[in-house]
Amino acid sequence: MTDVIELLEHDHREVEQMFTEYEQATDPQERRTIADKIIIELVRHSEAEEQAVYPMIRNQIENGDTIVEHEIDEHSQAERLMKELDGMDPNLPEFGVLMQQLMTAIREHVEEEENVVFPQFRQTVSPEELDKLGKTVEALKKIVPTHPHPKAPDHPPFNALLAPGTALVDRVRDMLSGRGQQ
Ligand SMILES: [Fe+2]
User: Fold this and answer.
1) Which of 26, 32, 52, 118 has the fewest CB within 10 Å, making it most exposed?
2) Using CA atoms, how far apart are residues 130 and 56, in angstroms rounded to an integer?
């Protein structure tokens, strides 16, 4: 399955699942760990959308520019929240407030994409093209794993992403753009 819309919608379900996990976790350390997983997944997903989907929307959909500007604006707002959350003590009340803001923003973003943006996209772009774009998204997914490898949880790049003292959002972006892959 490489239909790009199906792939991105599948990502959305995964992120929603992580949100539920976060909401059900009571231990602050566990919440912190889930928050990091969420952040990695969101950065990878946003990058995939920005690389594989938004350029086509810009070129092929009426009002495409306006739609894309709006979506990118939402991604930047989420990114600001994720940067504020970076390394924050999960015992602080502010941590919970920021996570709540992030989850609300993403839930709205997902709903809008699935109800407004993606249907228009599917109408305009051929199935072959959707498959081709899906391959781009799959390739990005391989670069940044969102789960530690079950047999080697301590191996890079997952543990490198979570190394202390680094800005997680920037690390994931660097990795996706081919920098910082030592
Ligand atoms: Fe999305």
Assistant:
1) 26
2) 10
Tell me the CATH architecture of domain 4-176. Up-down Bundle (1.20)
Distance 42 CA to ligand 1 centre (A): 8
Assign 152 to helix, strand or coil.
strand
CA atoms within 13 A on the CB side of 2: 16
pTM for the predicted model, two decimal places: 0.84
* C-alpha closest to that of 75 among 106, 30, 96, 36: 106
Rounded to the nearest angstrom, the distance between the alpha carbon of 83 and the centre of ligand 1 is 19
Helix locations, the chain, DSSP H: 4-24, 28-48, 54-60, 64-85, 93-112, 118-124, 127-143, 158-161, 168-176
pLDDT in tens, 135-165: 988 887 777 665 555 555 554 555 556 655 5
Task: Provide the 8-state DSSP code for 53.
Answer: I
